[in-house]
Write a structure and sequence with these properties.
The complex is a heterodimer of chains A (about 325) and B (about 400). By secondary structure, chain A is α+β, with helices and mostly antiparallel strands. In chain A, about 55% of the residues lie in helices and about 10% in strands. Chain A has 3 domains: about 5-80, no CATH class; about 90-160, no CATH class; about 160-305, Butyryl-CoA Dehydrogenase, subunit A, domain 3. Chain A is built from 10 helices and 7 strands. Chain A starts with 6 loop residues before the first helix and ends in a 12-residue tail after the last helix. Chain B has 3 domains: about 15-95, no CATH class; about 130-235, Beta Barrel (Butyryl-CoA Dehydrogenase, subunit A, domain 2), CATH 2.40.110; about 250-380, Butyryl-CoA Dehydrogenase, subunit A, domain 3, CATH 1.20.140. Classes of the chains: A alpha+beta (about 325), B alpha+beta (about 400). The structure holds flavin-adenine dinucleotide (FAD). Chain B: Belongs to the acyl-CoA dehydrogenase family.
C-alpha cells in the first residue's frame, strides 16, 4: 500500500494555501459576503495566477491529486468562489458548461448561481442535467451566496453519473479543508485559553471534545483519499461517493459543534473564523441533500449495488 | 491508467492470497457454530488446538515474527490480513494470540538466552498458553499503582498479592506478571516483570462470572509463591520499560472492524432492512466500518514507517471500539427478540447475542475509551509522542 499524496500535489497545495493566506484567508469570505459583487475580483485573479481553474481532476495522477488538495486548501478558507462547481465540469464540456450544481428534487435556490455562466444542475434521483437560469440574489446567514434559480430543459451530452461523482468528491475535499481549519482553531484555543488557573485543554471534558473532533476529521480525510483512489481506478460506485458524503456531513457536525463548544462565546462572533466557516459550509452540507436525505440515498444505493469491504455486502434489491 | 501510481491502496497480491488461503483453512477447521475460544469446554479447546497446530504446520502461526525466530518474512499487510481473518472468525487461536503478538516479541527483545530457549519454541509451536497479570483491584487505568509484592528471600522471589480481570488464567501455563519489588521517586519505578509458571504452589485462580461468559475474567491470588531469579524478565525495578514494550506491540490493536464487517455483510438483505429507518442505520454502520478500517490501515502504515504517534494509534482504536458497539447493538436490534437466545443452526446471525455481550467490553479492555481519548487529545494539544 502506498498512501502518501504525490509530492508535486502537496507542493501545489502549499502554494494555494500561501496565496489565499496572503489575501487574508477567511477575510475573503467576509468581504465577499459584505458585497457579493466582489467575489470575482477577490478570488478569480489568484485562481488564475495559480492556473487552478484550468486543471483537470480526471487528468494524470499528479494533476488530479493537485486538484483535490487545492480544493482542500480553498475549503480551508471557505473561499467565496464555486470552485468545486467549476472543476466538476469535464474538460470537453468546459466551453459549454460553466459549472455543476447537484440537486435532489425541486430547488428554488442554489449557491453562486448568479456567478456561474451556463451552469447545469444534475438531479441525483433522475440522473439528468438541466440548464440553470439564475434569478435574484437571496442571501441569508447560512446561505450567503444563494440566488433564486429556474431550472430549464434537459441538457444532452452530460454524463450525469460521472460529474456527480466528481462533484461529490470535490465537495468532500473542500469540507475537509474547512474542518481542518476549524479543528486547528479549537486545538490552539484548548492550549492557549486559561481558566481556573490552567489551560482548558487540561480538562477532561475539553480533551474528550478534541478527541472526538480529531477522530471525525481524520476519518473523513482517509475516506476522501480512498474515494479519490476508487474514482481514479474507475471502481467507485454511487454508494462509495454517497458514503463519503454521509461521512462528510457527520464529520462536519461533530467538528463544528465540538469546535464551537471548545471556543466558548468567542467562537460565535462574526469576527472569529469559526463562525464564518460554520455558516459558509452549510450550503455544501445541505445541497443536494442533508444528513438524513443523503443517508437515505446511500441506503438505497447499498441495497441496489452492495458495498465493498473485507466482507463485501451483496446487493439485494 | 498507468501501472505504477504514487497512491495505491491495495494490500497487495501476497496479502490477498493469504486471505483466500486463511478463509479456506478456517472453513475447513471451524465448526459452523463457532463463536468463541473462551471456554474450558474440551470440544472448544480441541478446535483451538487443531487450528493452532495447523497454522504452525503451515508456518502461519508466527507470521509476524522475525525470520530468525521462525517467522515467515512476511509484509505488514499479510500480518494485517491475518489479524483481520482471525478476529473475524472469533480468534480461533484462542489465548495463543497473546503469546504470538506480544509475549514472544518482548521476550525476543529483553529476554535472556535461557528465557528465549525456554519460551519461544513453546509459543511458536502453539503449545504454551499465557495470561497477562497486570490489573489489580486497586490498579486499573492507573496501572503503575500496582501493589502485588515480590520480595527476595534466600535467592528466591516470594510473591504475595492479587491480580484481577486476568483473561485465560484458568487455561494458562504461564503468567506475564507485573509486581512491585521496590519504590522509587515515581510510581513507575520499582516494578519488575516475572514469567511465572501458573502451576507454582500458592497460585489460586478464581473465575469471575461475567456478561461475556467463561474464561474472560478471573482473579488470581498469589500466596507465598516462590520463584527463582531466572523468572525475572528484563531488569529488576525497571519493569515499566518492559510494560511500555508490551504496549508498543499492542498499539496496533485487534482488528475489531473485520468481525463487524462480517456481521454487517451477513445482515445484507435481512427482512428487517425493509424498514427505511433500519436501512439508514445499517448504511451508516457500513460507512463507519470502512472509516475504522482505513484509520487502522493508516496506523499500520505509519507504524511500519516509524511515524506512528499516540494520536493516530488511539484514533484507530477509538474508531474500532465504537464501531464494535454500534454494530453489535444494531445486529441484535435488527435480529429481533428471538435472537436474544443463541441459535447454533442460524450461522453467524444465530450468535448476535454473543457479539453483543462481548462488545460491552470493547471500550474497557486494553485501555478504556476515556484513556484513548485522553491520549488523542494530549497528543493533539501538547504535541505528538512517537512510540518508543
Ligand atoms: C474483557 C476484558 C479482559 C481483560 N483482560 C485483562 C488481562 O488479561 N489482564 C489484565 O491485567 N487486565 C485485563 N483487563 C483489565 C483492563 O485492562 C482494565 O479493565 C482497564 O485497564 C480499566 O481498568 P478498570 O476496569 O479498573 O477501570 P478504572 O480504571 O477503575 O476505570 C473506571 C472508569 O473511570 C475512568 N477513568 C479512569 N481513569 C481516568 C482518567 N484519568 N480520566 C478519565 N477517566 C478515567 C475509566 O475510563 C472508566 O470509565 C481486562 C478487561 C476486560 C474488560
Amino acid at each position: 500500500m502506498r498512501r502518501d499524496w504525490p509530492q508535486a500535489a502537496v507542493a501545489y497545495e502549499e502554494s494555494v494555501t500561501r496565496a489565499f493566506d496572503a489575501l487574508g484567508g477567511v477575510d475573503l469570505a467576509r468581504a465577499a459576503e459584505a458585497d457579493r459583487t466582489r467575489r470575482e475580483a477577490l478570488a478569480a485573479p489568484a485562481l488564475d495566477r495559480l492556473d487552478l481553474r484550468g486543471l483537470d481532476p480526471w487528468g494524470e495522477e499528479d494533476e488530479s491529486a493537485a486538484v483535490m488538495l487545492a480544493v482542500r486548501a480553498a475549503g480551508a478558507v471557505v473561499l467565496p468562489w464555486p470552485l468545486a462547481h467549476e472543476l466538476a465540469v469535464p474538460a470537453d464540456l468546459r466551453g459549454d458548461v460553466g459549472g455543476v450544481h447537484l440537486t435532489s428534487g425541486d430547488v428554488e435556490r442554489l449557491d453562486h448561481a448568479d456567478l456561474l455562466r451556463d451552469a447545469v444542475a444534475v438531479d441525483l434521483d433522475r440522473g439528468v442535467a438541466r440548464r440553470v437560469t439564475a434569478g435574484a440574489p437571496r442571501p441569508a446567514p447560512l446561505d450567503p451566496f444563494a440566488s433564486g434559480v429556474v431550472l430549464g430543459p434537459e441538457v444532452p451530452g452530460v454524463d450525469a453519473a460521472r460529474v456527480t461523482a466528481m462533484r461529490m468528491l470535490l465537495d468532500a475535499f473542500w469540507v475537509t479543508g474547512a474542518l481542518a481549519t476549524a479543528a486547528d482553531l479549537a486545538v490552539t484555543h484548548a492550549r492557549d485559553r486559561q481558566q481556573f488557573g490552567k489551560p482548558i485543554g487540561k480538562f477532561g471534558e475539553i480533551r474528550w471534545r478534541v478527541a472526538d473532533l480529531s477522530l471525525a476529521l481524520d476519518g473523513l480525510e482517509e475516506l476522501a483519499l480512498h474515494a479519490w483512489w476508487l474514482v481514479r481506478r474507475g471502481e467507485a460506485r454511487s454508494a462509495d461517493l454517497l458514503a463519503l458524503r454521509v461521512q462528510m456531513i457527520e464529520a462536519a457536525n461533530t467538528v463544528l459543534a465540538n469546535g464551537h463548544q471548545v471556543m466558548g462565546a468567542m467562537g460565535l462572533c462574526e469576527e472569529h473564523d469559526l463562525t464564518v466557516i460554520d455558516r459558509h459550509l452549510q450550503s455544501v452540507l445541505h445541497r443536494p441533500a442533508g444528513r438524513i436525505a443523503s443517508t437515505g440515498l446511500l441506503a438505497r444505493a447499498v441495497a441496489a449495488e452492495g458495498f465493498d469491504g473485507v466482507y463485501p455486502v451483496a446487493a439485494w434489491r | 491508467m498507468p501501472e505504477e501510481t504514487s497512491v495505491d491502496l491495495r494490500l497487495g497480491t501476497r496479502a490477498d492470497a493469504l486471505r483466500v488461503r486463511l478463509r479456506a483453512l478456517l472453513a475447513e477447521l471451524l465448526p459452523d457454530d463457532w463463536t468463541t475460544s473462551f471456554s474450558p469446554d474440551p470440544a472448544v479447546q480441541s478446535v483451538v488446538t487443531r487450528v493452532v497446530e495447523r497454522l504452525a504446520e503451515e508456518q502461519l502461526l508466527t507470521l509476524s515474527w522475525p525470520e530468525e525466530y521462525g517467522g515467515a518474512g512476511t509484509d505488514i499487510w499479510q500480518q494485517a490480513v491475518l489479524r483481520e481473518e482471525m478476529w473475524a472468525h472469533f480468534e480461533p487461536r484462542g489465548p495463543q494470540y497473546m503469546g504470538l503478538n506480544w509475549v514472544g516479541p518482548v521476550i525476543m527483545e529483553v529476554g535472556t538466552p535461557e528465557q528465549k530457549a525456554l519460551h519461544l519454541p513453546a509459543i511458536s509451536s502453539g503449545q504454551a498458553v499465557w495470561c497477562q497479570g497486570f490489573s489489580e483491584p486497586g490498579a486499573g487505568s492507573d496501572l503503575a499503582s500496582l501493589q502485588l509484592g515480590a520480595e527476595l528471600h534466600d535467592g528466591e522471589w516470594v510473591l504475595n498479592g492479587q491480580k484481577i480481570w486476568t483473561s485465560y488464567a484458568g487455561l494458562a501455563q504461564w503468567c506475564f506478571l507485573a509486581a512491585r519489588t521496590g519504590r522509587g521517586a515515581a510510581k513507575h519505578d520499582g516494578i519488575t516483570i516475572f514469567l511465572v509458571p501458573m502451576d507454582s504452589p500458592g497460585i489460586r485462580v478464581v473465575p469471575i462470572e461475567s456478561i461475556m461468559g467463561e474464561q474472560h475474567l478471573n482473579e488470581v491470588f498469589f500466596d507465598d509463591v516462590r520463584i527463582g531469579p531466572e523468572a525475572v524478565l528484563g531488569e529488576v525495578g525497571r519493569g515499566w520499560d518492559v510494560i511500555r514494550r508490551v504496549m508498543k506491540h499492542e498499539r496496533i490493536g485487534i482488528s475489531r472492524y473485520a468481525r463487524d464487517e462480517r456481521v454487517l455483510a451477513a445482515l445484507a438483505g435481512h427482512p428487517s432492512l425493509a424498514e427505511p429507518a433500519a436501512l439508514h442505520e445499517y448504511a451508516r454502520a457500513l460507512v463507519h466500518a470502512r472509516v475504522a478500517r482505513l484509520l487502522n490501515y493508516r496506523a499500520v502504515a505509519l507504524n511500519d514507517a516509524g511515524r506512528l504517534t499516540d494520536r493516530e494509534a488511539s484514533i484507530a482504536r477509538l474508531a474500532s471500539i465504537q464501531l464494535d458497539q454500534e454494530v453489535a447493538a444494531l445486529a441484535l436490534d435488527l435480529s429481533g427478540a428471538d435472537a436474544l437466545v443463541p441459535d447454533p443452526s442460524a450461522g453467524l446471525l444465530g450468535h448476535v447475542e454473543d457479539v453483543f455481550r462481548y462488545a460491552r467490553s470493547a471500550t474497557i479492555a486494553s485501555g478504556t475509551i476515556e484513556v484513548q481519548r485522553m491520549l488523542v487529545a494530549r497528543s493533539s494539544i501538547e504535541g505528538d509522542r512517537r512510540a518508543s
